[in-house]
Amino acid sequence: MESNNGFFNQYGGKYVAEVLRRPLDELEVEFKKAMADPEFVKELETIQRDYIGRETPLLYAETATKLLGGAQIYIKLEGLANTGAHKINNAIGQCLLAKRMGKKRIIAETGAGQHGVATAAACAKLGLDCTVYMGEVDVRRQQPNVSSMEMYGAKVHAVTSGSRTLKDAVNEAMRDWAANPDTTHYCLGSALGPAPFPDMVRDFQSVIGKEVKRQCAERNIKPTALIACCGGGSNSIGFFAPFIDEKEPRLIAVEAGGIGPGIGENASRMTGNTSREGILQGYKSRFLLDDDGQALPTRSISAGLDYCGIGPQLASLGKTGRVEFTSALDKEALEAVKFFARNEGVLFAMESAHAGAEAIKLAPKLGKDKAIVVNMSGRGDKDIFITCPVFRPVEWKQFLISELERLNDAKDIHDAELM
Ligand SMILES: *Cc1c(COP(=O)(O)O)cnc(C)c1O
């Protein structure tokens, strides 16, 4: 399961400028030492329990199972982790490691802001200085997450180069790290990027899969399939990790099918027809690229799956067939949000709803004696600006207009402060 010198078959590696080699090598050594140190492992487990709120429950989705009429459906409620999603598992792990290494400053990249929020929260908890690089376009689009990061005390640095989105934020964070390797740790947000990040992020996220394995064993459940959504791949690889070297269960990763198969309409790096091998941002994997090797535009209703690359280990496991890739359309994900909210009282994040959509398709094809486990990587509270305009378009617009009027009517700052 570990990479072979940073490679998972032909994917992975460490394709970075010379200045970044030393900090990456140092990180790899220190990470291995920390994970072999019972003191560090204990500290990590304590903070996972008391701060993140682990373990997260495994819910039997009884009504959903009955309605679909096939395999028993279980939902891993990862969205109940503090901050509302799995990203905190990685952020806390890396920040704890950075602290052990004597680094006082954390930098991170963020696209939609979820990883930025998780990192900002982890830094607040651990007393570390935090700067989050975020494309200027994303800063404008994702104000609620920018506010959260600032509430946790992080500085949000709006990146004005290039397309002013995620890939430019990554470049800027790498530049910062290259200039300040002794004081600073770069907390990368998914199981991708140059080695050792894919191994490290997987290991910090593997707490999900380890818990599921234990929870299934305790209840005598032998799952036929595990299903997770797949952006960069951190929740899926962490969920799958303890099962990869076994023949069963089936491991199913669901990419963003967006609005269709055309260029710029989805983010299907494994199942899409514009996908190809390439080297981007320090690692070799499968990407959505044009003929000149430039990143193609992507599209998804879920910000977290809207990315042109995928972690190298998943790309490799897709090639060997151990992980099966499929996709769900935006509208199927929206239907899944409704289905599980109404029937199970569980509000899936738009990303996680892609896994939910696959469960809805798969369960009826399997016998009632079979079981499947869906990872709900995050909860959907964060998505109200996406779901409400779809489910209640008129009322939502009216609400926004009246909120704006209320803010404009506030007589002075003091009024506004009290609101
Ligand atoms: C960011 C995010 C994802 C996608 O990232 P992975 O690295 O593929 O896990 C999925 N679900 C939620 C809730 C997210 O915030």
Brief overview, please?
By secondary structure, the chain is α/β, with parallel strands linked by helices. It has helices spanning 18-35, 38-52, 62-68, 87-100, 114-126, 136-141, 143-151, 166-179, 197-205, 207-218, 234-240, 312-320, 330-344, 350-362, 384-391, 393-409, 413-418, and strands at residues 7-8, 11-12, 58-60, 72-76, 105-110, 129-135, 155-159, 184-186, 225-229, 250-258, 275-280, 283-288, 323-329, 371-375.
Tell me what the structure shows.
The protein is of the alpha/beta class. The protein folds into two domains: 15-50 and 87-198, Rossmann fold; 53-83 and 207-385, Rossmann fold (3-Layer(aba) Sandwich). Helices cover 46% and strands 17% of the residues. The protein has a six-stranded mixed sheet with strand order 3-4-14-9-10-13, with helices on both faces. The chain has a four-stranded parallel sheet with strand order 7-6-5-8, sandwiched between helices. The radius of gyration is 21 Å and the shape is globular. The structure holds pyridoxal-5'-phosphate. Residues 85, 87, 114, 190, 229-236, 304-305, 349, 351-352, 377-378 line the site of pyridoxal-5'-phosphate.
